[in-house]
Design goal:
Length: 297
Amino acid sequence: MRKDFPIRPRRSLLFIPAANSRALEKAKSLHPDVLIFDLEDSALPEDKPACRDRAIVAVRDPDYGSRERLVRVNALDTPWGADDLRAAASAGADGVVVPKIECAADITAAAQIIATAGDGRTNLWVMVETARALLEIGEIARTAAQPEYAFAGFILGTNDIARETRAATVKGRGPMLPWISQCVLAARAWGHVAIDSVYNDFRDLDGLQAECEQGLQLGMDGKTVIHPAQVDVVNRVYAPSDEELQRAQQIASAFELPENQGKAVISIDGQMVERLHLEMALRTLQIAGAIRALHRQ
């Protein structure tokens, strides 16, 4: 059975190196929807245990407000992965992000560790960044949909996908579009969130905006970012526009009219509007409300 789509905003997910105390402190004044304290790519092997400790302190720090706090752990087949998972779950992180997953069995293994170590509040996220994961994305999504796994969604890692597949990294991401779309399709089929990959050139805000618009058109819920300068662009693109909000409110108000109660189809400005459009409109309004609530706090 598919889960309900979440209404919690996940437009921008900022990676914060747990090895960098200054970055951890600065993140308290930034406005991404989600914080990801990173123990993987940004930490040297000899620093990983200390970085884990810093991430746990950050997870518990009230100064980060009400934003979701995730911990990207090391891969399960590394010496640190299982201990990272246990520490994040026992600390009450909102979620853990597991990199380099390849098959449904990886989902099961991670979920079992979280369930044993945590109190039920920690969701599982996974990075889709290997060729095998792309081949098996449908089965991964189906397995992850089991309610007891508390699975949240996929985060694409196109840098690693490019390394594994040797696909060219070019503007517009043409070589990767079929794989990206397949991940979105698998997420939607089983009720998961789909988050787009990072944009590497943090100085190129025009390029970032174009890639955000592409991701939104493909059905993504949001995008990971690697630099504070990228947050505002991502937040703006992935938020409902004024025009979308006006149209959504118009549809919702029209269906509330007494003469339209119980109707499956109505006419608005010469266009036929069905209840599926009402469902989409209500979701748009809920997302906008959730964004306002999150950043009011």
